[in-house]
Amino acid sequence: MMNRVSAHRALLFLLLIILSRQALAIPAAWDRSDTDWQTRTSAHFELHYPARYDQMARHALSIAERVHAELVPFFQQQPDERTQMVLVDDYDYSNGWATPFPFAQIRLFASPPEDVGGLEHMDEWLHGLIRHEYVHILHMNMSRGVTRSGRNVFGRLFWLFPHVFTPSMFTEGLAVYLETNRKLGYGRLDSNSYAMRMRMELDSHQGDDLNQVVVPLRDWPRGKHYLYGAYFWQYLADTYGEASMSRYLNQYSSQLIPYVMQNRVARKVFGKSFPALWNDYRQWLLAGFTPQIEQLKAHDVAGVALPVLPGDQQITTVQNDTLLQVIDNGEDRAEISRWQVAAGEGWQAQALTPVKGVSDVDIAADGTLAVSRLIHHASGRDLNDVFLWSESAGWKRISKDLRLRKVRWLPDARQLIGSRKVHGLSELWLLQRDGDARMLWQSTDTTVLGSFDVAPDGQSLVASVKRPQQGWNLEKLDLGTLRWQALTDTRAIEHQPEFLPDGRILYSADYDGVFNLYVLQPATGMVEQWTQVLGGAFQPRWLNGQVAYQDYTSEGYQLKVLNPRALTSFSIASRQGRYDYPPSVSETVPSERSDYSPWPTLMPRYWLPLFSFDDYSSALGLATSGNDAVGRHTYSIAALWDFNQDWADVSATYLYDTRWSLLWNRSHSYTDLNTGLDDDYYAKREDLLIARRDHVVDALEDQLQLHLGLVADHEKIERAPAGIDRGEGFEETLAGVALSFDNRELYRNVPGIGWGTYADLVYESNDVLNSDYNGDQWQARVNHTFDLPGRNTLSFGVAGGVADRGAEPFSIGGQNGEDALLFGRDQFALPGYEDNAQIGHKYYSGMLRLDRWLTRVERNWGMMPLGLGDISMGVWAQTANAWFRGQHRPQLSAVGAELGVDVVLGYNLVLPVALGVAHGLDDDLGETKGYLRTAVLF
Questions:
Q1: Which residue, 294, 327, 296, 324, is CA-closest to 312?
Q2: What is the pLDDT of residue 729?
Q3: DSSP assignment of 801-827, as one string?
Q4: DSSP code per residue over 81-101
Q5: Is 895:923 a contact under the CB 8 Å cutoff?
Q6: Could you write out the DSSP letters of every residue in 149-199?
């Protein structure tokens, strides 16, 4: 028996995986009632945006045209068509992305950075964002010779973009290198936060080798491919010159077999392969950083570490002698914990409450916590809202889409002041405990408000503020007059200020190239230095005579407590210095405005040849896909014409936002009768139509959803040997409604789901539309994962269903089932048994599984596109039963074990592979089988 349905579907799924990796069309968030999309067109760009952002859109286009003029000489190429840019304000964090597929496109988040991480070190945040993303477009779009000729035939076929098939440290590193202007003093390579990260890498282990940086998955530091890649391009520029870098990029652009040609081109241009260049690069780094490391170690003054694992920078707040911390270690549920000194035992942490997505927290005099949380909405927006929590009353939400990222209580504990970024502007809001809110202040230009704190008397606040064409300084805002007063005017990044009880201001700054803790006396302008660390000191909190802060180490941010003393003192006036950046644009470029239309960007941009040959058929075809610039409409089509059989296999999908989806698939399969005669086979055609409407209703932070679905499956014998009746075929058409709940969480250091519950209840009917079946069916399932200590999880699941007598029966057995479907599922996997081991109109299934993380490899095989990530192990037990009414069948049980390995393909595509063995416990039907299972994670 040969089944080409599986082969064709596997091919189509593989194509979708590849294309999704390269051309993930992320739709803009669902339109609000006041959203009117517009388009502005300049010489080299089209910018799509909500109409209320017209002023920002014109400014962004002017910046883009300037960036284009500056960068094209380096790349010596430019896109043949205008680059599509989309400006959105759907996220309460700073980011953006770029891809050359299916056309050159850039997404801009209208959200300026407000915290230290490198992004804050820019002349203007929008200029830095556009420049970085446009480097990606010019870089990945490069072609020459055979690749350029191939695009003339096949269009923008992904395989004809050699620079897409390079490690992300090359693409991201080059963008960071070219976003940086050391002469003027901006860009991540000019920032002390990037120098801090590399300094700690070199001090701890003399830096990563090439194999480690090529696959940046979960290891510290986060974004190591940006860090190592940027310094690597700087090394190439210092050693070989930018002309050699440009020559390498252009010569590699002609490689049709990209992965294996990287070292060959490097040897031709630089005289060395990338492994040899990397060894020289590490020596270059050590020579540059070692003197500073030795000097800092000789004068190190730091606090005592608390017994908590280092990791990402944590959120902390203080009340008297109590320190609260949001502990998120990547292997357990995030929790707000209270740190206190226990007699004879030192610092001890007590967990108070689990949390998720915390952006900021502050504690009132009565112990009530104000927590800003980032909530992922079904619409596609990621917005912050404020919640209150107390040990007696629990949680209470007091805002809805207010977007306050940082919050601070006023002394009366009845009101809060919060900051937010909307339309690219900074704002301060006054929020009451009952949820009433009003805006206090809004910036009128590119001024960016960073972290802030409220004075003990509640009459003023101090904030880190970035004024136009300057760096980050401390300013004081009188809450009565709403007038700002400058406290500092330096080239340092002064941030994370906190008032001390005596009115002085504690903060973090990088006056000497390293972030340390300082205290400013506003009345006199005198400053005391309290730390001298090797990494960096951040988020200081006054702790009843001590200072709690976070020290950047080679393993992450470590919470420490310091008994402060003045190491040095100086006048803030002695550090005076200004950037006086030139304006990002000198004039507004001409552009034409029109209503947005999806049609110009929806046309197919490439054609991928397909073929399939076997004993029964010879098929040739094409595949393509596309989306519009805003991402509202996404489609894919694959079609093959069988020249032996004179029929077609076709698969087509269409998505609208994240709400509507449509799939139509026509496929043929063949069954050999094994009679020894010619043409002794059946050919069966299946037409499958699946339509879904998700997010009909959403609730509980959009974790509860109502879905509608339609599944129409028609099968018939298309060809049979002479003299054999082909029959009428059959058709099943199910219309259904489903309710689902999903609050599952993924943790960086845990295999699979880290914690949470998925549940659904599905009703489907054969009687709404024409169907050869009749009656209704109900199904329900619940899966829950327990977060065990460490990197271990325990999961259980139960599922069951019942169908009317005239409905299609359920079946259990085999390795592959339809368990992942919401609608139209009637085949359920039970490893250790053959397919359809039991069938019936009733079924149930139960599962118990234990997973344990074993080790982290996170290394690549040189420059070849193959690497390994995490390795884990799982053991499981499952029982299931299917039966017809009036029947009694014994339940079927199985046990198994599997080894899970993250296989990394093409440097970025993580393919979890599970190699397992299953043993069916039934004496008659059970058997022992090995299996290989894969899934795709991005």
A1: 327
A2: 78
A3: EEE-TTSPPEEE-BS--STT-SSS--E
A4: SPEEEEEE--BSS--EEEE-S
A5: no
A6: HHHHHHBS-GGG-GGGGS-HHHHHHHHHHHH-BTTTTBSGGG-HHHHHHHH
pLDDT digits (tens, 9 = 90+) for 411-462: 999 999 999 999 999 999 999 999 999 999 999 889 999 999 999 999 999 9
Hey, which CATH number is domain 30-141, 3.40.50.150, 2.60.120.970, 1.20.1250.20, 3.30.2010.30? 3.30.2010.30
**Sheet with 394-397: strands ordered across:** 358-363, 369-376, 382-390, 394-397
Omega before 102 within 30 of 0, i.e. cis: yes
Residue-wise pLDDT tens digits, 489-512:
999 999 999 999 999 999 999 999
| 921, two tokens | 């416990």
Direct distance between the N- and C-terminal alpha carbons of the chain, in angstroms, rounded to an integer: 35
Q: What's the pLDDT band for 677 if we cut at 50, 70, 90?
A: low
466 neighbors 490 (Cβ within 8 angstroms): no
For residue 750, give the amino acid letter: V
Q: Strand pairing partners for 318?
A: 323
Question: Looking at this protein, which amino acid is placed at residue 63?
Answer: I
Binning the chain into helix, strand and coil, the percentages to the nearest 5 are 20, 45, 35
Listed residue (70, 12, 250) closest to 145, CA to CA: 250
CB 192 within 8 A of CB 516: no
- Cα(553)–Cα(310) distance, rounded to whole angstroms? 8
> Would you state the structure tokens that stand for residue 929, as one six-digit string?
């089988």
Which residue intervals of 665-780 are DSSP H helices? Answer: none
pLDDT digits (tens, 9 = 90+) for 735-747: 999 999 999 999 9
Q: How far is CA 622 from the centre of its chain?
A: 31
CB atoms within 10 A of CB 781: 20
Supply the pLDDT for residue 675.
Answer: 67
Q: Which residues lie below 8 Å from residue 904, measured CB to CB, with a gap of 6+?
A: 215, 217, 860, 866, 867, 868, 869, 910, 911
Domain ranges of the chain: 30-141, 159-298, 444-530+565-581
- Considering the domain delimited by 444-530+565-581, tell me its CATH architecture: 6 Propeller (2.120)
- C-beta separation of 801 from 780 below 8 A: yes
Q: What is the mean pLDDT of residues 351-378?
A: 96
**Which regions of 433-545 does DSSP assign to beta strands (E)?**
437-442, 448-454, 460-466, 472-478, 484-486, 495-499, 505-509, 516-521, 526-529, 537-543
Q: Which pair of tokens denotes residue 392?
A: 């007696």
Q: Which residue has the tokens 């596109």?
A: 865
CA–chain centroid gap for 292, Å, is 35
8 Å CB contact between 604 and 628: no
According to DSSP, residue 325 is labeled: E
For range 456-481, the mean pLDDT? 97
Rounded to a whole number of angstroms, the CA Rg of the chain reads 30
Q: What residues form DSSP beta bridges with 99?
A: 105
The one-letter amino acid code at 101 reads F
DSSP of 672-703, one letter per residue? E--SSSTT-EEEEEEEEEEEEEEEEEEETTTT
Strand order of the β-sheet with 322-327 is 316-319, 322-327, 335-342, 346-354
